[in-house]
């Protein structure tokens, strides 16, 4: 029996959710007390990755930021956040933050208070004027690699804003949540919208939504990453200008499939991490690959494939070459509260 595209997509989604649930044994083995995050006093959230279908970095502004047009698309690959409230320590808001790495990823080497999730929770509390003596306990289950241009940290921050709001009884559409998101970084606000959307300003101002795709893609990442700051410094020294026709076509697109794939940070990021050239060349030469583009400032490259079976083969070949790789799909997802199980 031949499955329809919607049936195949539903099957993949069910498989992804099953894979997340099957990790509970591994979580316990690593000391994460999932039982402590169940019940009505806890909340579970998903934080999807993204790719940039179009990224046009402009001139540096007097405030040090760059003008940008960014069309981002969410992926079905996601981190999982679990949050709950606990008694305070007599010092107002306290945070108890843990992180568990999955997918063969290295453990994050970031002090808890410097993690963007902690910053997000504190910032929202400030904007809400919340001064309760309480502890927000959070566990981040990482499936999205860091320094990859996939927005993992930004998505975690967006999910943390929604999770804290949920725990504090604040509606998810409270404008202070998006204010906090924009203050945290250019990509954070996107994950409150999800799907596919165009952002302008410095990449933080929502312009319009586009009809998303459910295209099969493979994410490929070499060892090491590209520092966003280093990429922008190199770009300022050697900027690449996107043709006006491509920019106009991107801004006029109403469907993700019509967006011309383009990223003017690619040349400088490939200079900073030459292995990105190897990935682009390898992927571009394959008959089972349709389009290839680096996301953000790198170091992940996304590879569009005709079918999920093709994506699986491409991912397996990439791993054989020593690269981290994951087959997934583009989708309409966003940072969101999900059933806590």
UniProtKB/TrEMBL annotation:
<keyword id="KW-0547">Nucleotide-binding</keyword>
<dbReference type="InterPro" id="IPR004424">
    <property type="entry name" value="IspE"/>
</dbReference>
<dbReference type="GO" id="GO:0005524">
    <property type="term" value="F:ATP binding"/>
</dbReference>
<dbReference type="Pfam" id="PF00288">
    <property type="entry name" value="GHMP_kinases_N"/>
</dbReference>
<dbReference type="GO" id="GO:0019288">
    <property type="term" value="P:isopentenyl diphosphate biosynthetic process, methylerythritol 4-phosphate pathway"/>
</dbReference>
<protein>
    <recommendedName>
        <fullName>4-diphosphocytidyl-2-C-methyl-D-erythritol kinase</fullName>
        <ecNumber>2.7.1.148</ecNumber>
    </recommendedName>
</protein>
<dbReference type="InterPro" id="IPR020568">
    <property type="entry name" value="Ribosomal_Su5_D2-typ_SF"/>
</dbReference>
<comment type="similarity">
    <text>Belongs to the GHMP kinase family. IspE subfamily.</text>
</comment>
<keyword id="KW-0808">Transferase</keyword>
<keyword id="KW-0414">Isoprene biosynthesis</keyword>
<comment type="pathway">
    <text>Isoprenoid biosynthesis; isopentenyl diphosphate biosynthesis via DXP pathway; isopentenyl diphosphate from 1-deoxy-D-xylulose 5-phosphate: step 3/6.</text>
</comment>
<feature type="domain" description="GHMP kinase N-terminal">
    <location>
        <begin position="115"/>
        <end position="195"/>
    </location>
</feature>
<dbReference type="GO" id="GO:0050515">
    <property type="term" value="F:4-(cytidine 5'-diphospho)-2-C-methyl-D-erythritol kinase activity"/>
</dbReference>
<comment type="function">
    <text>Catalyzes the phosphorylation of the position 2 hydroxy group of 4-diphosphocytidyl-2C-methyl-D-erythritol.</text>
</comment>
<dbReference type="InterPro" id="IPR014721">
    <property type="entry name" value="Ribsml_uS5_D2-typ_fold_subgr"/>
</dbReference>
<keyword id="KW-0067">ATP-binding</keyword>
<dbReference type="InterPro" id="IPR006204">
    <property type="entry name" value="GHMP_kinase_N_dom"/>
</dbReference>
<feature type="active site">
    <location>
        <position position="187"/>
    </location>
</feature>
<dbReference type="GO" id="GO:0016114">
    <property type="term" value="P:terpenoid biosynthetic process"/>
</dbReference>
<dbReference type="InterPro" id="IPR036554">
    <property type="entry name" value="GHMP_kinase_C_sf"/>
</dbReference>
<feature type="active site">
    <location>
        <position position="50"/>
    </location>
</feature>
<keyword id="KW-0418">Kinase</keyword>
<feature type="binding site">
    <location>
        <begin position="145"/>
        <end position="155"/>
    </location>
    <ligand>
        <name>ATP</name>
    </ligand>
</feature>
